[in-house]
Amino acid sequence: PVKYLKDYAPPAYLVESVDLTFELDDPETVVKSKLVLALNPKGTAGDRSIVLDGDKGLELVEDSLTVDGKVVPSSQFELTDSGLTVFESALPESSESLTIECSVKSNPAANKALEGLYKSGGNFCTQCEAEGFRRITFYPDRPDVMSVFTTTIVADKEKYPVLLSNGNKVEEGDAEDGKHYAKYVDPHRKPSYLFALVAGDLVCSEDTFETMSGRTVDLKIFVREGDVQKTKHAMESLKRSMRWDEETYGREYDLDIFNVVAVDDFNMGAMENKSLNIFNSRFVLVSPDTATDADYNNVEGIIAHEYFHNWTGNRVTCRDWFQLSLKEGLTVFRDQTFSADMSSKGVKRISDVVRLRGAQFPEDAGPMAHPIRPESFIEINNFYTQTVYQKGAEVIRMLHTILGPKGFRKGTDLYFERHDGQAVTCEDWVQALQDANPEIDLTQFRRWYSQIGTPVVSCSTEYDESESTLTLNLEQSNPQPDSEETGEPLLIPIRMGLLDSTGLSIPVDIGDGLVENDKVLSLTKAKETFTLKNVPKGSVASLFRDFSAPIRLEYSDGQSTEELAFLLANETNDFSRWEAGQKLAANTVLGFLARDDDEYPEISDKVVEAYRAVLRDEKTDKALVAALLAIPSNRFIADLMKENDPIPIFKARSHLKKTLAKVLKTEFEDVLKATEDLGEYSIDLKAQGKRALHNSALDYLGSLREPEVMKQCLETVREGRNMTEVLAALNVLAATDSEERDLALATFYDKWKENNLVILKWLGIQATAPREDALQIVKSLMEHESFDMTVPNKVYAVLGGLSANDFGYHIGGQESYDFMADQIMRLDELNPQVASRMAKSLSLWRQYKPEIQEMICSALKRIADKENLSSDVYEVVSRSLSA
Ligand code: ARG
Ligand code: ZN
């Protein structure tokens, strides 16, 4: 059944308090619940029956259902596929407040969907967002029902020494039969999706944080024995996040305890349960020899993300799931800016944009396209998307750009003040920003919440020498999927700067006062012209600095190689400098692709010189230099073409890499030497930058397949000082047909086979290696002892890796797509959320050339024909085929 935003109705009953007792055991767990309900004064009058959500797998213990202590006979209630209805006849005359109790049986160990209560690595844990609580017990499982939770956990003392839930521990002790118990009360009212429980054999690292008002918070990170020393970075990141949220948003933590638990079996990255965040272990556990710099940065970002949810998500939550971006877009924006503040802003921005373009743009152009606030869905789990998260964050970023940091902060202050403790909508959010900034009109801006698709802004410039004016002619179009009409014009903030012909920044003057550096223009109409005054001849305007809006920018007359090389050399904005380099490289790749044989044209000297200058640039931060050297992705190139033909694009990109490696060999070798850090490992920015640049040079030189480099890579895999360096070397080898490749993979496996997280890398590198035999490799990986279809991380590494393999996946043609379809069908029986995530890769068929489209569609049809598809996979596949 499809759910619609427009059908929202307030809940009939509110829950004043909820008291849960978990008698945890394998195979049978019993959950007792006691809800105190009250009619919602804002609910619609009418039938007073109580309707509670409950999964159809829930087993109600006979005669356990009572209302105000009286057993409800079976004639007075009904169990359905979606829950439990207690008829009016079972209720007392006046139901100002009534108590409903019941017991439910389940087998958490059999729960492979990893939603609700399940077991991971021998421990019990939960995942309730979005609608997992209804797999635990009967409850009004919707975010606008907020209640005070009391939780008692009873479990075997030896097997499950640690018992955790939300809030404060108020009681604990021994129970019968070798069991023990703990009781928790969470004083903050919360929706059921924020409920959490963990029971297991865990140890923890501990620290404290003193809040800005002087309270001490106990911080604990729970992991398996042996992993404690890998939690240091997560702990430091947590303390930095807590401080940053106080300094940046004035938000203080609100309990005396904050727990994080790492589990190996988890569908997503992590979950912000009140005071008990549960994490996919790969976003907690890092050490130099087992994790890369990218892993360290992910840990920092995700720890921050979940912590920030305490205010943006928990204290102020969502009225309904259509509002998901209210908390996710805002919280992603907050974690992005936090990470940027902790590191190099430009490099962070570049990686955020790469992700947006690589994953959100295709989604927005495909059959699953939806506005950041969707209007309908079948399965909410399908809407934890790049659009809701990443585009959602871009929308918040634009608000920040339009209001400026001070205006934005005024807005968030008002938002928290007004809505603390409430479940609200995206409208409420924008309204708070609007009311705090009455001088700026956000009416048009609201369209970003309801309009689908990636806007295209096209630009042409005219210079008038006699007037010294530069005119920007801008046009926006908002192509809508499945419709000829374009959408309404949006308010698009354009952060821009001007450089004179010598590369110096000059002020921007559009007649409303000089702006020294960045000027923010507001494009509001379909067509609009801005005239810049006092512009010397030969100046260059740089538009959309920091990628100030999630749009595609086109220059109607193109941008010349000279202009791009000029910007790559001189632009002061890191993002725009990188963008110029990407376009320069992309134009070269497009030039290669214009020949349909393999006789690629010579690469232009100007391009070579531009890259030489980058390689010789000693002034720029090395992490940025590494980013500047990255060959644009397949996706970046495909976006500039009419259709995506991945194999030739991949070949042309590889050719560019090899050509640059050949002509700039000395420069690359110099860089390699200059970045051979022999000092102690450190995660600081300088050290990271050095490693990034080193690995980039190695990647270029490795593309030439010279025996020397192959040997050196093998040596690094054997003796490497840290995982960042080892993985880069292994990655170079994985693409080759060398003896070194086989040796390196075998050595690596032998060394790390006991470490699940490291083995994910070994699996992933093989699945993504651009080789003709990628499909065969993936098939044998799935037979390998290290693979397990029930562990999402492994599926993401292998099947996710294959689907991201621009060359190796598509070269397999129909066989590849059919294979993927088969795996999705197998997975759907185990874990629909993971299956659906894989199915989304097939849903992007429309971007490809017609032959590929047909093949993917035929694979999709095979899935559609399967009986008993989950609602998750059904929604993705049916939307893909009906478009
Ligand atoms: N709220 C979590 C986060 O972004 C994501 C949980 C999503 N889980 C799911 N099963 N859809 O941090
Ligand atoms: Zn989140």
Produce a short descriptive summary.
This protein has 883 residues and is α+β, with helices and mostly antiparallel strands. Its cofactor is Zn(2+).
What layout of secondary structure does this protein have?
Blueprint: E1 3-4, E2 13-23, E3 29-39, E4 50-53, E5 59-60, E6 66-67, E7 70-71, E8 77-80, E9 83-86, E10 98-106, E11 116-120, E12 123-127, E13 147-156, E14 162-165, E15 168-174, E16 179-190, E17 197-200, E18 203-210, E19 216-223, H1 232-249, E20 257-263, E21 270-271, E22 276-280, H2 293-308, E23 317-318, H3 324-342, H4 345-364, E24 376-377, H5 386-419, E25 423-424, H6 426-436, E26 456-464, E27 469-477, E28 492-499, E29 505-506, E30 519-523, E31 527-532, E32 540-542, E33 552-555, H7 561-570, H8 574-593, H9 605-616, H10 622-629, H11 634-638, H12 646-663, H13 665-674, H14 685-702, H15 707-719, H16 723-734, H17 739-752, H18 756-768, H19 774-783, H20 792-803, H21 813-830, H22 832-843, H23 850-864, H24 871-882
Parallel strand pairs: 2-13, 19-20, 20-22, 23-25, 26-33
Antiparallel strand pairs: 1-24, 2-3, 3-10, 4-9, 5-10, 6-7, 6-10, 8-9, 11-12, 12-17, 13-16, 14-17, 15-16, 18-19, 21-22, 26-27, 27-31, 28-29, 28-30, 28-32
Helix pairs in contact: 1-2, 2-3, 3-4, 3-5, 4-5, 5-6, 7-8, 7-9, 8-10, 8-12, 10-14, 13-14, 14-16, 15-16, 15-17, 17-18, 18-19, 18-20, 21-22, 21-23, 22-24, 23-24
